[in-house]
Amino acid sequence: MANKDQWTSKVGFILAAAGSAIGLGAIWKFPYMAGTNGGGVFFLLFILFTVLIATPILIGEFIIGRRGQADAVHSYKNLAPGTKWHWIGYWGTIVSILILSFYSVVGGWILSYLLRSFTGVLIGKSQSEYADLFESIISNPVEVLLAQFIFILMTIFVVKSGIQKGIEKASRIMMPALLILFIVLAIRSLSLDGAMEGVKFLLQPDWSYLNGKTALLALGQAFFALTVGLSVMVTYSSYLPKNEDMPKSAFSVAALNIIISLLAGLVIFPSVFALGFEPDVGPGLIFVVIPAVFNEIAFGGFFLIVFLILLLFATLTSAFSILEIFVAVLSKEKPEKRKKYTWASGVLAFVVGIPSALSFGVLTDFFIMDMVFFDFADYVTSNIGLPLGAFLISIFVSYRLKKADVWDELNSGSNISSFFFKMWYFLIRYIVPVAIILIFLNMMEIL
Questions:
Q1: Which domain holds residue 213?
Q2: What's the first-to-final CA gap in the chain, in angstroms?
Q3: Where exactly are the transmembrane stretches of this chain (predicted)?
Q4: Spatial CA neighbour of 306 closest among 170, 195, 184, 192
Q5: Phi, psi angle pair for 99, to nearest 5°
Q6: For residue 306, what is the domain's CATH number?
Q7: Residue 16: CB atoms within 10 Å
Q8: pLDDT of 237-248, one tens digit each?
Q9: Is residue 345 part of a domain?
Q10: What share of the chain is helix, strand, coil (3-state, %, to 5)?
Q11: Is residue 24 in a domain?
């Protein structure tokens, strides 16, 4: 049975889907990963894997959702009744809550910094003082929990209103604003003396970094950046009309993700290189180095506020999609209780996230596999949750669904060639599963 709630336009869907993909992965994790893995080579491989591996899975999730006409669980039930394939959807919902639990903690950190930027506290500090400030914020149990709760409330407020009034409306405002803010910051960053060294680092490949490890890390970043494997897009595409061109929408989302990643690199690396910082700082790249960078340029306080607003926008748009997975599953049979289920899901994410929020303070000595809880939650979702979900989705689409049905759904609303279909089907049936297995083998080698 089709969903009554649908996207009002193609643009609304693409912006919401892009908002789901473009979060801390593109803005924070991409620069950090590129900074520690050769810059230009990593970026080149990231583009290649996004187009050839992650995007085919994205199209696969679109097919499942629109043909199944339900959420991340019931779409699989509708397409494969009497089987256990719907556990892919349950897996996605469980992983989504775990991701939102620590994602909201980072969202809280951003709110804490944004408040301080408005009050002028971030102006005039040294790099070491910024590091001390970051440590004091993340170790303060009252502040981190309050900030995390406020971030969750912001997410609940949008998601409870549904697709048209909530997620789509917010994405129509946030995503264009995100692009505009990034362009402004990139122009400012590129105007600094010595900025071209950062551009060269990002765009000029250093082939000495071309090895198996860099390739596998770039492949993992492609999955993380598009958030494939959670069945987020299964849920989102279930609200699509049959006349929507899914391949074009998928490539639009992938293109926006690559553009934002590029802009993130053009914001961060020119500034870092121009002012003598190192690009491989890690988590402190945003919360320690970037405030210090903006502190040393004209109108730096203003541009820091703009950057933090941008980062908050990106984090929120991803949080909307993650919470929507859980809410859609719960409200399938009782859509009139959507608001109650949204509140319940949001509160659950907050409660699950408490150990992550306290990981750098009260629970700093509590370890799982030699990691604090925050790092453990991030590690499990990034290295097990997303790849396993993506692997199962690729197998479901290419081996469980009938090839004729896949062609029919993919061709509905578009006019793809048989050559494109054969290429995509080959990728998702053979290349994608092998690539994901390589990720798992790489993870086992690291362990």
A1: 10-446
A2: 45
A3: 12-30, 42-64, 85-111, 144-163, 175-196, 216-239, 251-277, 297-330, 342-364, 384-402, 423-444
A4: 184
A5: -65, -45
A6: 1.20.1740.10
A7: 27
A8: 777 777 778 888
A9: yes
A10: 80, 0, 20
A11: yes
